[in-house]
Amino acid sequence: MLSAVLFVAACAATAVAQTITLQAESATLSGVIVGTAVAGFTGSGYVEGFDESTDSIKFTADITTAGLYDLSIVYNGPYGDKYTYIVANGAGSQISLPATTEWKTVSAGQVLLTAGKNALEIQSNWGWYLVDAITLSPSAPRGPHKVTTKPVNKKANADAKALLKYLGSIYGKHILSGQQDQASLDWVTTNVGKTPAILGLDFMDYTESRTSRGASSTDVDKAIAFAAKGGIITFAWHWGAPVGLYDNETEPWWSGFYTRATDFNIVDALADTKNANYTLLIKDIDTIAVQLKKLQNAKVPVLFRPLHEAEGGWFWWGAHGPEPAKKLYRIVYERLTTHHGINNLIWVWNSVAKDWYPGSDVVDIVSADTYSQGDHGPVSATYNNLLALTNDTKIIAAAEIGSVMEPALLKAYQADWVYFCVWSGDFISGGQWNSLSFLKEVYNDEYVLTLDEIQGWKGGKA
Can you name the CATH fold of 4-138? Predict the structure, then answer.
């Protein structure tokens, strides 16, 4: 767990601290080289050659005043949109580096630094970018949150209202534990000794392109059963393309939500409301509406996360950029709320970039999915980007994670994720992403809420 020294450092005054710049070419280089061919850099050069996963730049920051610091990276991205990974004193974050042929500065979140020498490392991640320098400046104190707990759906029912109100009541004070799929949640209960507060499920195997090939699901039944125990439900939707699945040895039908597995084109489907593919999209939404009505009738509110990870482009709904993805999200919203009268949903958006955001009138919670094996840091860069996305007016969630965040780091960085949901299988039980001993520490931390600790939330009693 986080050392007492680091935790105290987070609270230390930074009034006398100053901004410092560290040149990449003066750091310790591993697998990369110094370049000078691209004009506009500062110092005596820049670092290039990120083409292997082990490539890195290791900086040493000599800090006079302990505390939280804003970290920025000066970079050039001539090879397209990329990601890098930065680790500071053991806590890491994935950082987006948008394509650019100019030298630009991008926020890399916050880092918690002690007085004296601190280790910061840029690791390759996607690779293929140029790094000029990093800057560190004292973080300004963060004021109270300004989030709303009023659902965007004006006809939201009492169950949905109670859920969003409850999330608002714990926001910044606790984090809800969550686990994707019933079998993995049961593994946590058996092996960790605590049951997560949130069960993550999927509407994937309810639509025709999958049921027609033999798929079936009981996730709605599992949701109703878990909610009856006082738990909270979140649903994703790995939406198999309604038509155009390649269904071959390389891309079998069950991978049909991936861009690579279908020739379904969202732009063509949304070109007008009379083409066959648009009709198929509506049919799939209507099919999911049947299941949502079962949950509504059972008084189960749902944290609903459609079109997740859109900006990644690896799912067909994000394959053609932000505009069609945002348009489809609004179609899903209107079809379910206005046409079908489904009012038990809390709407969760799941991309960070501003140009992908569909609008605060159709989003209750903003979220991100983050996977970094063995890194239990607070993912502060992503959290801060989501904070800026809506000017702190929406609650923020870690909708999918691989490695669980360390509670002390969450508090130290003020990364106030309202819940986390660990992905299933080896992510929770394999030991490489999360050791059992670490999971027990997390689940027994007072900052982390489990099923037994949220009883009565719907009536405001938790």
Answer: Jelly Rolls (2.60.120)
